[in-house]
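Sample 1 of the test manifest.
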Amino acid sequence: MALKIEGLSAREILDSRGYPTVEVDLQVSGQWVRASVPSGASTGSHEALELRDGEEKRYLGKGVRACLGHLKTLTSKLFAEPFESPEAFDRWLIAEDGTENKSKFGANTLLPLSMAMHRAAASVAQKPLFEYLHETYFKDRPLITPIPMMNVINGGKHADNGIQIQEFMVCPRLSDEASMGDRIRAGAEIYHHLKRLLKQEGYSTNVGDEGGFAPNLADEQEALSIISEATTQAGYQLGTEVYLALDSASNEFFEDEKYLLHQEFPPMTSDALIEKYNDLLEQFPALISFEDALQEDDWDSWKRFTDGLKESHPHVMVVGDDLLVTHPKRLKRAIDGGNCNAILIKINQIGTISETAETMNQAFASNFQTVVSHRSGETEDPFIAHLVTGSGAGWLKSGAPCRTDRTSKYNELLRIFN
Ligand code: PGA
Ligand code: ZN
């Protein structure tokens, strides 16, 4: 199928935090499609480069007109020849950029083109995007109903409370056969029970960047306790129907080789922090996933944590986000070294869809659990709902069941699995 680019129009739009991001309209073989890119706050230092203008007077330096300039420069070349597939198109983009981390054009210039081209190819093939992605990259994977990982209490860089751990999630699996609708409903019900409980206890129910509440709780035990109570009140069984998950985003509280989990306590060594996680697991056996529990280059501690859980809690996911940045090389190191057993997939960490698929297939081949993820700064583009479905990855992290930037992904899943 030759894909001929016939039109391109790009602009700055606002993301969910009110900062600009790139949106592209692409005309391919007669079809117009649209795509836009998300943006992180707790970004890993090994991610592909996100290009910002740095002009302090415009959007406090966060403008993306440089990306629009690059798109303009690329236009005549893009129009010249048809591409045989979206993969070939991605390869061409990667070669044009020519850098290790997409630093010539920026991942936020390349990714919307790559997303749009995949969407266009699906449209030309008259298939839904998830089906196209499945046939193109993940043919042998079973298509399963994903489990949402809903971030119901926000901390860290996504909120102004004193909690360092960035995300406290509920994962409503219910049962293997449960429908998408029932899973999402369970998450939303727990969310509303949690709101009521927080109100009762006199806490704020204002929300953070990912739609979760951002109360000034004392610590992570209190957060997990109140979420547990909300789950029970909603009528769900913890540990069988609903699991708990954490994203520590621990880079953000790593200073001078130590972890500052609580302002009032002395900084912790990695071993002390690992012990803390093990204690939490004892207290809250429904915990199923620890993401970025340790700092992005603290490979040895990651291994100690993973090894320690192997015997006692083989089902627990140790998820590399900033550690792996959706990059095949870092993933290979973790597979070879046994530093974790699961990967977070963020399309803008690597910058193209075909490279994302390559990393995912590498993870599947090594039996790594695979979680497809949004960013804390999102747009209304639901691409990742199709990616998690088409790949059979099994887990989708898209924040709370609240705020359109988050629900746009869950709602797309409701449409896909209707
Ligand atoms: P970010 O947060 O998008 O701000 O990086 C999400 C995450 O850490 O998983
Ligand atoms: Zn993370």
